[in-house]
Predict the structure.
Amino acid sequence: MVSSSHSFNIQDSVDVIKSSLHLSPASAAVDRVVKWNCPNHSCYILNVDGSCLGSPQRADFGGLLRNNAGLFISDFSGHIVHSDDILLAELHAIHTGLQMVSNLNIADFVCQSDSLHCVSLINGPTMEYHVYATLIQDIKDLVQLRNTPILHTLREGNRCADFLAKLEASMDSALSNQATPPDDLLPLLRDDSWGTFFPRG
């Protein structure tokens, strides 16, 4: 039989454990919200994305450049022939976007991708035996040339690039650039420029 003092000690231990695991209202889980250009970069912002859609699946990519107020500068989209590799699509998006900005002679910009894997590959040490080692090194060279930060963004803050990557799923061009945005992209651009928040899925 457990004595009353032992029962008290057990209950006290349980209460301590519970209190240590209890989250305060400030740290309790809450719905996260995301917006474009967070945390408010003052330079140009390049957003890029890759996509694998269709049956059979195909690898596509896209992206766009805007100033920090959301003003559209240029965009691109493309299709990788005979590939359904999402990693390759994401890397191509970054590489193509960096080349586009370089051709525009814009130096002060950041590149945002919602692929944490790609961002880690580019910002991490050189991996000589990676299947895409050459492409990754080409990206690293472009990054070093202009000292461009490659940053991770949540997909809710990358909606315009996602739209452009998926847009190519209905086309077959290896690469296309537009100086004006597609009409269906305009509402997304407007939401971003207004600083609209979207719930994190």
Notes: The chain is about 35% helix and 20% strand. Confidence is low (pLDDT under 50) at residues 2-10, 12-30.
